[in-house]
C-alpha cells in the first residue's frame, strides 16, 4: 500500500528486493493464502514469526452508515476508487495526508479534517513539509482542530474550536489510524510454539522498524 502513495514508489522496489533475497535463500513464499491458529499448529514448525501487520481503525461516527464512505487503505491499495468530484478525508495523520495527496493528484477536490491542532504529527518534518507543499499546490483544504460530530447522506457536522460547522460531502474517506492485528498471536498465546511477533503486529510504527525487527528475529532463530 505504501508504494501507491505519491512519491513513495521506491517502496515497491524495496519489497521486490527483499522478496528476491528471501527466495534465493530458499524461503517458500505463498501469496493469497489465509492461515489460522490451527493451521499454524498443524504445520509442526519449531518457530513462528508473526508479521500480520495492522488493521485500520473505524470510528462509528453517528450517521456514518447513511453516507458513502470508504477506507483510506482501500483507496491507496486501489481496491476502491473514489469516483466523485469531491471527498472528505477524516484523519490528518500520515495515511490521511497521503490519501489526500493521492486523490488530489487525480483531480479529486479534497477537504481533510483532523481533531488535533495540527496535521502530520507523526511525520518526519522534512517529508511533512514536502507533502504539505504538494497539498497546497493541489488546493487541498486542511481543517485541523475539527472534531466530527455526525454525518448525514450529504453533509458533515463538526465542531471547530467554539464554532459548529457543516460541510457538504460526496465521499467520506476514513483515515483515523491503525491498530495491531493480534488475532493470530492471541490465539496462539497458550501454545508451546516459540513465537516472535514483529512490525505493526506489535504496534503500528514505521517500515524501518518492521524491517529491523524481522532481521533481529531471523538472527534469533
Q: Main sheet, how many strands, which sense, barrel?
A: 5 strands, parallel
Using the coordinates shown, work out and report the CATH topology of the largest domain.
FAD/NAD(P)-binding domain
Query: What top-tier CATH class of the largest domain fits best?
Result: Alpha Beta
Widest sheet: strand ordering:
3-10-4-5-6
Task: Count the DSSP helices.
Answer: 7
Which structural category do the helix and sheet elements fall into? alpha/beta
Radius of gyration: 20 Å
Shape: elongated
What does this structure look like?
The protein has 221 residues and is α/β, with parallel strands linked by helices. The chain has two domains: 2-55 and 179-220, NAD(P)-binding Rossmann-like Domain (Rossmann fold, 3-Layer(aba) Sandwich); 58-176, 3-Layer(bba) Sandwich (FAD/NAD(P)-binding domain), CATH 3.50.50. Helices cover 31% and strands 24% of the residues. It has seven helices and twelve strands. The chain has helices at 10-24, 37-42, 72-76, 94-104, 125-137, 183-187, 207-220; strands spanning 47-50, 54-56, 69-71, 86-90, 109-113, 141-143, 146-151, 155-160, 163-168, 171-174, 178-180, 194-197. It has a five-stranded parallel sheet with strand order 3-10-4-5-6. The protein has a three-stranded antiparallel sheet with strand order 7-8-9, with no helix packed on it. Strands 1-12 form a two-stranded parallel sheet. β8 (155-160) and β9 form a beta hairpin. α4 runs parallel beside α5. The model has no long low-confidence stretch (mean pLDDT 91).
